[in-house]
Amino acid sequence: MSEEREQVELEEGSLLTALTQKNMDDFRSVFLEQHPYDQASFFIKLDPEDRQTVYHFLSPEEMAAVFENIEDEDGLYQTFLSEMDPTFAAQMLAQMYADDAVDVLNELDKDQVASYLTIMDDEAAEEIRELLHYEEYTAGSIMTTEYISIHAHQTVHSAMQILKKEAPNAETIYYVFVVDEDEKVAGVISLRDLIISEPDTMISDIMNERVYSVSVAEDQEEVARKMKDYNFLALPVVDFQGHLLGIITVDDIVDVIDEEASDDYSKLAAVSDVDSTDRGPFSAAKKRLPWLIILLFLGMFTASLIGRFEATLEKVAILAVFIPLIAGMAGNTGTQALAVAVRRISLGDTEDQTLSKMIVREAGTGLITGAICGVVVTVVVFVWQGDLFLGALVGISILATLTVATISGAFIPLIMHKLKVDPAVASGPFITTINDIISILIYFGMATLFMQYLI
Amino acid sequence: MSEEREQVELEEGSLLTALTQKNMDDFRSVFLEQHPYDQASFFIKLDPEDRQTVYHFLSPEEMAAVFENIEDEDGLYQTFLSEMDPTFAAQMLAQMYADDAVDVLNELDKDQVASYLTIMDDEAAEEIRELLHYEEYTAGSIMTTEYISIHAHQTVHSAMQILKKEAPNAETIYYVFVVDEDEKVAGVISLRDLIISEPDTMISDIMNERVYSVSVAEDQEEVARKMKDYNFLALPVVDFQGHLLGIITVDDIVDVIDEEASDDYSKLAAVSDVDSTDRGPFSAAKKRLPWLIILLFLGMFTASLIGRFEATLEKVAILAVFIPLIAGMAGNTGTQALAVAVRRISLGDTEDQTLSKMIVREAGTGLITGAICGVVVTVVVFVWQGDLFLGALVGISILATLTVATISGAFIPLIMHKLKVDPAVASGPFITTINDIISILIYFGMATLFMQYLI
To answer: What is the ipTM of this complex?
Structure first.
């Protein structure tokens, strides 16, 4: 365990004692020295009674810093807010960075949101109301309006004065955006450049006029990609006329990248949400069952398909032995191709040309892997069962299913993407089932056709 | 297509023309205005001849900015460096941020690295040599030594002087670390705090003494987690005595988070590297085949297991119909449990207590999902085949396999983690195969035992 961790745990002990003894001074002297993330981790572990004490020990502003570091799980926001005095809650929300406050309010129902906004002071309410308009997962929904903007005809000195004044409230002061009279983005300058420039330099002389920006309706994944590729610490968000509406900072993007990756991962594994796992078995079962039941019925369909070949099976029972092998290989290659396609799509390679090239490439990959695995299987089955025809049957089935499975694994997510369905949903289950069905049709189809050579 | 993208494509056209006409002024006037990321994207698309022209048109320093934005794929670093004049290459490496230069050198063989370091100026070579010591994927391997440190007994004014002087070379100036006489980390101060403080304030009065740091040997994933949770823009890296060795900046962490997530994802899908997909079918096939061949032999093992029950199968061919269903369900639940366990482990929840709680929880989840799916299957099979005993047999097999599969899906990654093997490797393939085998043993075991009721 790291020293930092040890210290935090020691402190948590004294914080708990202070809460039980209702000793406000002790509590505040330790708590306010902690990083808000540690404060939040401590806070969410408390029982309702201790949380009440915390609300009385902290100011709305201090509580806001804690709340900014709480992630919503199992309706935590709802629970905590309803415990607070409504005025305290509204003041706290007003003190949070507007983008974080919006994240919280998005989890509540409309009536509640409206009542908090009414109690709040007008300026904060206005800021939040503007952000609430934007659709989830867009640039607008993760941006903040607490940025610093300056004009091109200012000097470095006067820009630094503005920075000093605005620093306590702005989410970042490290990038400053330059706007013209119409509030359109005209340039950007980093604090680094401001600091190394002479105080009487004009901003217009040193600003970078090539500003990368994102549209307010842009998907947050696209924003994350831009920020990652270009190593920005902040990106301006503009409307369709190029007016500056807000900025997105790198810390929000770190969360987005992590979420989106988790999301693709969860879907590949057919779990609805892999991250929130601090629950009992019932709630875990509830989350996984919908997938399992769907898969069960898909599996039944596969079973009924095999049922059609019962006559073939009765004559040549050995055929059954290779069902899991063939279906399994089809599932595996399909998932590989799917994973590649989903990642490509979420990395933004979605031009038609790139995609059709991908399909051709996957077809080639399927043929090559299918041919090699097919030969290996033929040899192994021949050696094991001493039946060259059976070996060839299984081998050719592997070749055919691997080719078809690889193509379908790549093709289905593309179709889904075109139909504006998140391709990650196609995931393990569907690709695997489709490939099960295809592989079984090929295998038993050929077996039935060439039955006379098998008996 | 966005405006920015359109502009970049227009520029790429004129850059190509300038290269063909060997027009250095035209080339430089457009190229040097571009963001290094766009420069790199343009550069890697060029043919060798045009690349030669670029090496002659740019200074080593300008080329360094391009190179910092190239990701190594298919030995790109190797190719480009070997095309360059060795002195030019060494000068370029010296001009890169040391951590990026190390990333490049790590891809070359030792002799080459040594020869570049010999040509390079001593200071740069020393810096790089120090970083080359650190193991890949540790904090040491991603940190940079180009940071700014100050002392506690300085004033804000003198600290700002240092910042102005060091800004052009430091990787970040937004966090400044305070060290004591022994070069141990004593505090941290953000540029934001420096700017809003009076020039004659002592650093010791305003610095934050609670510094979060990471050990040089720490796993990069752990570093990423800390940075994400605490929203830092930079973290100091210290040795075991607490001496400041370097810093890690948020842009490197964004890459780490993205890589690690991709990595877990790739392993779940049994592809070695999902991201690098701009290759032909042969190289894609080469990457996937090792997995497929392993899976093929695992599948063969499953097949031979079913082979043992050939006698049972010959008597009751209908049994074969449910093989894919049972094996598929076992695979699906196993993968779900695996995904949850892998994510938990990579999120750092690795204390014994948490983990044993997870196993208990998974066992419960397996029982609940197994019971529900089992009942559904029994009913469906009874309705479909009109055979209650067959329905019950399949249903009970589902109950048993789901329970076992869920536990093994969670348990195996834990064991692997304890054995210091990356649990993500367990992935789809192994969990699925183990669960295939278990499910078939349970299913045919029961079928053979109760054979008399089936015929």
So the answer is: 0.72
